[in-house]
Amino acid sequence: MTTTLPAPTPAPPGEDRPDELLTADFYGYENLLPEEERTLLLKARAALRDEVKPLVNEYWAKGEFPRELIDVFRRLGLAGLPYEGYGDPLSATSNLLVGMVSMECTRTDASSATFFGVHSGLAMYSIFRGGDQRQRDRWLPAMASMDTIGAFAMTEPLGGSDVAGGMRTTARWDGEHWVLNGAKRWIGNATFADLVVVWARDEADNQVKGFVVEKGSPGFTPVKIENKLAFRIVENAEITLTDVKVPEANRLQRVNSFRDVAEILRATRSGVAWQALGVMIGAYELALAYATERRQFGRPIAGFQLVQDLLVKSLGNITACWGMLVQLARRQDAGIFRDEHSALAKAFVTSRMREVVAWCREIFGGNGIVLDYDIARFFADAEAIYSFEGTREMNTLIVGKAITGQSAFV
């Protein structure tokens, strides 16, 4: 059976509008968005440039999250975009717009984008996909308006890649409440979130289930992780859960096993690939601008062959990854999207991102390790994106199983 993918909607005449296109959008991928969606993307681009970018280096250096970012994202109304009935009139719009918004956020700053992605992607989608209608109506409107901030707690101090089969955090029904015990680590937003989606293994049936733990719950203790060399704006926490009581009304009703959790991770993993593209674009734009301004031997270094080689290789990676992600978004919209599709994108795009940020940092020479020039932040933050939402090795094995029919997992 052949499935026909929907054709992209081109921008109206006036087409390339070079004054608005990103320098790195060499093939004009943004023109695949219909005008209304592209207008929203450009609105986000302006706000991120004018209101977010001026903040990030100061807070990145301090290792603190600027709370004023919440107001910026609230005014943009982006959190409800993927969820029909829970946001802007454009809610339930194309996955291509959702992906490009993620790219745009990360193009400015990966830490700020991760705060937003944890809230609007991991936390909101867990409730949208795993909650029943009553739970959606209870939490999602306030999350879409960003009056309620969410977090997502799966990774554990002793469990990352093996968390599907080795989750140590437990849930026990005592006749009146669920009682959670265990620990989570690397949980973004957890130090200030109003609610945290916590994943735990039910002692009764050994299946993973989801629980919404609200701020201030007794026994729920988040402690900020210090001394990070990447994602310094993100307030990641280690969480201790000691006899935390959660009512049945806060158990996600449509999650009964890790198979249901995997449905959530499939969608969010593709969002991380879009974030990696944004990091590449941000680093490339910085390097291109620097190369045209920096003079050595009496002329701009942009005129040197080896510098041009680094820039062109970076642009090639960006363009190839953008094409992959556009097609991935179209498959999501067409309903023919599987685990291996997002796994390949995450593994491939983050690997290319690592190359690009290294090449772009190289163009800066010694200035490339100074925060004032921004590129050092992109270089460091890329390492975090490379590792989370499944390592390259784990995503490679997901794709390997799909194409060979043989599982290489141990």
From TrEMBL:
<dbReference type="InterPro" id="IPR009100">
    <property type="entry name" value="AcylCoA_DH/oxidase_NM_dom_sf"/>
</dbReference>
<dbReference type="Pfam" id="PF00441">
    <property type="entry name" value="Acyl-CoA_dh_1"/>
</dbReference>
<dbReference type="InterPro" id="IPR006091">
    <property type="entry name" value="Acyl-CoA_Oxase/DH_mid-dom"/>
</dbReference>
<dbReference type="InterPro" id="IPR006089">
    <property type="entry name" value="Acyl-CoA_DH_CS"/>
</dbReference>
<dbReference type="InterPro" id="IPR036250">
    <property type="entry name" value="AcylCo_DH-like_C"/>
</dbReference>
<feature type="domain" description="Acyl-CoA dehydrogenase/oxidase C-terminal">
    <location>
        <begin position="261"/>
        <end position="403"/>
    </location>
</feature>
<keyword id="KW-0285">Flavoprotein</keyword>
<dbReference type="GO" id="GO:0006635">
    <property type="term" value="P:fatty acid beta-oxidation"/>
</dbReference>
<dbReference type="InterPro" id="IPR045008">
    <property type="entry name" value="ACX4-like"/>
</dbReference>
<comment type="similarity">
    <text>Belongs to the acyl-CoA dehydrogenase family.</text>
</comment>
<dbReference type="Pfam" id="PF02770">
    <property type="entry name" value="Acyl-CoA_dh_M"/>
</dbReference>
<feature type="domain" description="Acyl-CoA oxidase/dehydrogenase middle">
    <location>
        <begin position="151"/>
        <end position="244"/>
    </location>
</feature>
<feature type="domain" description="Acyl-CoA dehydrogenase/oxidase N-terminal">
    <location>
        <begin position="35"/>
        <end position="146"/>
    </location>
</feature>
<keyword id="KW-0274">FAD</keyword>
<dbReference type="InterPro" id="IPR013786">
    <property type="entry name" value="AcylCoA_DH/ox_N"/>
</dbReference>
<dbReference type="InterPro" id="IPR009075">
    <property type="entry name" value="AcylCo_DH/oxidase_C"/>
</dbReference>
<dbReference type="Pfam" id="PF02771">
    <property type="entry name" value="Acyl-CoA_dh_N"/>
</dbReference>
<dbReference type="GO" id="GO:0050660">
    <property type="term" value="F:flavin adenine dinucleotide binding"/>
</dbReference>
<protein>
    <submittedName>
        <fullName>Glutaryl-CoA dehydrogenase</fullName>
    </submittedName>
</protein>
<dbReference type="InterPro" id="IPR037069">
    <property type="entry name" value="AcylCoA_DH/ox_N_sf"/>
</dbReference>
<dbReference type="InterPro" id="IPR046373">
    <property type="entry name" value="Acyl-CoA_Oxase/DH_mid-dom_sf"/>
</dbReference>
<keyword id="KW-0560">Oxidoreductase</keyword>
<feature type="region of interest" description="Disordered">
    <location>
        <begin position="1"/>
        <end position="20"/>
    </location>
</feature>
<dbReference type="GO" id="GO:0003995">
    <property type="term" value="F:acyl-CoA dehydrogenase activity"/>
</dbReference>
